[in-house]
Amino acid sequence: MADVVVRVEDLHKSFDDLEVLKGVSMEVQRGEVVVIIGASGSGKSTFLKCLNRLEEPNRGRIFLEDVEITGQKTDLPKVRRNIGMIFQQFNLFPHMSAIQNVMEGPRTVLRMSGERAREHASQLLDKVGLSDKLDVKPGQLSGGQQQRVAIARALAMEPKVMLFDEVTSALDPELVGEVLTVMKQLADEGMTMLVVTHEMQFGERVADRVVMFDEGVILEEGPPEKIFQRAESERTRRFLNQLHWEGE
Amino acid sequence: MEWNFAAVFEHLGFLMAGAVITVQVSILSMIIAIVLGLVIALVRMAPLASLRIVASVYIDIFRSTPLLAQLVWIYFAFPILTGIRVSPFVACTISLSLYASAYLAEIYRAGILSISSGQRHAGLALGMTPRQVLTRVVLPQAVTRMLPPMGSQFITLFKDSALVSLVTLQDLMWSAQSLAAFTLRTVEVLTVVAIIYMALTIPQAFIVNHLHRRFGVD
Ligand SMILES: Nc1ncnc2c1ncn2[C@@H]1O[C@H](COP(=O)(O)OP(=O)(O)OP(=O)(O)O)[C@@H](O)[C@H]1O
Ligand SMILES: [Mg+2]
Predict the structure, then answer these.
(1) Among A8, A50, A203, B82, which residue has the fewest nearby CB atoms (within 10 Å)?
(2) Phi and psi of B83, rounded to 5°?
(3) Chain B residues with beta carbon closer than 8 angstroms to that of A94
(4) Which residues of B are less than 8 Å from A121 in CB distance?
(5) What's the total number of domains in chain B?
(6) Is the pLDDT confidence value at B78 over 70?
């Protein structure tokens, strides 16, 4: 029996007159890694933000483990603790040390005791390779280190699914690898992940499925070998070609 | 004319008693304004448009009319309209508090808005309520940015408080005017009083400069 973590039905989102999502439907299985690609402005970020309702969809329904989260009466904070989100700009809390950033969710949202939260947080920072940076403020960390703290911060809530929005795009090229390594590790451990990225090698190695967004709709989707080597759509092939040239 | 400070120094104690009132009314007003200003700033950013309008009308009224007019209005007109009489000290404290709270509300708002939406999103995405995002994420960062302009605002309030002498609160300026009338040494008295104001303000300016260096964002 299929174990669906996220189900999206006919999602629409507009900003004033600009229709950004024009009916997107998707199902994500537990443990699945879905990589989302597509041109700038095609609605990838908006789609992720609708999933935890940082943006309000105009139409359509979203289910998290069969519970609808698009209703008016949805308890948003409660829904969001189950959905981890990692941002392009890290968005660590600059007034807190690395470990305080990771403890913040469990402490404030889950009301966990300080002792337990600290122990859990230091395990997570160890897992992302930052056990020597516990008490360092984000301003003193490299971009790659900050992004790994951000991943640990999201993991601390033990989310059912994690959303990654171009999390390596703001990094110097030599720091991209350390973040992708952590993400690969999470994927191997069975985390359910939706990953917007331009890192096609990551897509090839880690994705179970690649979804191509184009102008607010899903243009095509399939296993990475198919999308990357034998895409049906001319637009997908052109998009991948461009990336390739930019990457060289 | 000849300078003669003897009469002034003879009554220095009288001036100092006035200075104590000045310090008291300024500090008390600032404390009230710090709290009231935050409330107004939050209402100014409330989800409900009608609330936002109320707060912005409040801010506009108190920032666009002279403090003296507000003071006179609260001390003379308000009791006539309501039948509630208050002492000069209370009236002046209320007046200065309301006036400063309008400016502080805008300082708070600017500080809060200066925190990026990414920070808010990060807090919300963890499952925080909007209130938790405010108290755990936004305010701790905004406060350091607010401190320098708040300090400047306090210095302004301190100097503006001289106006309370006009509604007979016996502050430093009122004492100066009484002593000038009594000794007929107006220039000497006001010279000494200006020095007392300076002596009280310069340490404040020093602290504000320090805050700017420590927390200022350009
Ligand atoms: N808050 C907003 N208000 C108005 N328009 C917005 C807003 N957020 C996004 N948009 C617009 O919606 C469209 C889709 O934006 P979105 O960020 O989802 O694209 P994207 O696929 O993530 O692009 P990129 O690869 O550049 O990140 C863009 O045209 C963008 O300008
Ligand atoms: Mg985007």
Answers:
(1) B82
(2) 80, 0
(3) 141
(4) none
(5) 1
(6) yes
